[in-house]
Amino acid sequence: MKRKYSDRANWRRVLDKRFHVSFVEEPGFTGYVSLFHILQVRDPLWKHYDEKVVCVADAGYKWLQHFPKNANYALTSMYDNKDNVVQWYIDICNVQGVTDHGVPWFDDLYLDLVVLPTGELYLLDEEELNEALANGSVTQREYDLAWAEANRLIGEYQNGGIKLLNIADRDLHRWE
């Protein structure tokens, strides 16, 4: 299991960035919110979903991350250089925390959900989770937790949408 930090301090693709973080208690959300503003990159990052190709990181892009309190997921809303959502990325996680320097982190449980602005939902990395269970990187309890949380979020999406996706935009300009 990998620990992932919201400041992406070691991401070599990004040559210059700004990073902000706050603890938020507002209607519909309590937890940490961070903004990773990509100012300069070595090269853009593209993702493929079926026949769709999506640029998710380039100069001027913003990754707004929500860490809901007591949840087993973190949401990254990825915006282009015109503040249009290019995708929402949901990492299923075991636990979340914050470093001594105030940087939110989570222990990744491999399964991820991607929602595109056109409405498509993708479940990713099932094989990585299965491999992690087989090699002992995750326990049976963690494996079951990952699937339970992914299935819960898929169900929530199919029954009207994941609420956090609808309120994420309000935090995009919090630090401007």
UniProtKB/TrEMBL annotation:
It comes from the Bacteria. Residues 58-161 form the DUF402 domain. Gene3D superfamilies: FomD-like. This is DUF402 domain-containing protein. It comes from Paenibacillus contaminans. The lineage of its organism: Bacteria, Bacillati, Bacillota, Bacilli, Bacillales.
